[in-house]
Here is the input.
Amino acid sequence: MRAAAERYGTGATDVERFGLAGMLHDADYDRWPDEHPRRIVAWLRERGEEEVAHAVSGHYTGWGVPHESALDKALLACDELTGFVGACALVRPDGIASLEAKSVLKKLKDKGFAAKVERAEVQRGAELLGVELGAHAQFVIEALRAHAAELGLGPRG
Here is the structure.
């Protein structure tokens, strides 16, 4: 999401806010999955983080929250796709090092691969940003590649 601030937001002024949304958007899921994202949204609002709370409340289109800001759109567009790109990297011997968008798009067509990833959310996110899905996938790959070692997406062996 920090990289998304540079690409889809206003740059340096958005980096911390986008990063906060990316880090916290699923913070309540493991402990309270039936209440997700209500608990983290309430927590953010208590701390005056209304814009981040709104983005978090809409990071799934099925919740019916309008995607108004660049932050709203970027969080939706990056959430599912980031997990999917990570899954693609994990099945490659060299991890994310040589992963390209065309491989990600091919895997998206395989409903059995990372089956829980909601493909419609991936597509809708790119549409909301007004970008081609392949270009957005390549952007996510490059953003993750820069942190491959710390994310466990490097080569195996």
About this structure: The chain has a mean pLDDT of 96.
